[in-house]
Design a protein that fits this description.
- It contains three helices and four strands, in the order E-E-E-H-E-H-H.
- Helix 2 packs across helix 3.
- Strands 1-3-2-4 form a four-stranded mixed β-sheet.
- With 98 residues, it is an alpha/beta fold.
């Protein structure tokens, strides 16, 4: 899954890189509205300026799904470890829509 873009907003103004080298192209306003404790983000201009996070792409994809108007991840289908990693990330970044 290296260097693939999972969330790819064409007009994105923020690029996030997961711990396993997956890039997410997001909107800063969506992050600011929903993730109350997200690291301060400057508007990067390319992949070299991506904000690096310690979570894997799997966890970030589920978390970022919650900041856009789309169906929520099926939490009841997750194994316990994945559920706990998602819960920890949601708590860490204060994404309380889950």
């Amino acid at each position: 899954m290296q260097n693939q873009t999972v969330v790819n907003a064409q007009d994105a103004d923020v690029i996030i890189k997961s711990s396993d080298d997956v890039y997410f192209h997001l909107h800063k306003k969506n992050i600011e509205c929903v993730a109350r404790a997200f690291p301060h983000i400057e508007t990067p201009s390319g992949l070299d300026n991506a904000v690096c996070l310690p979570e894997t792409a799997n966890i970030l994809e589920m978390l970022f799904t919650c900041i856009y108007p789309r169906p929520m991840p099926a939490l009841d289908q997750l194994d316990w470890n994945t559920f706990m990693l998602l819960a920890e990330a949601a708590e860490k970044y204060k994404v309380f829509v889950l």
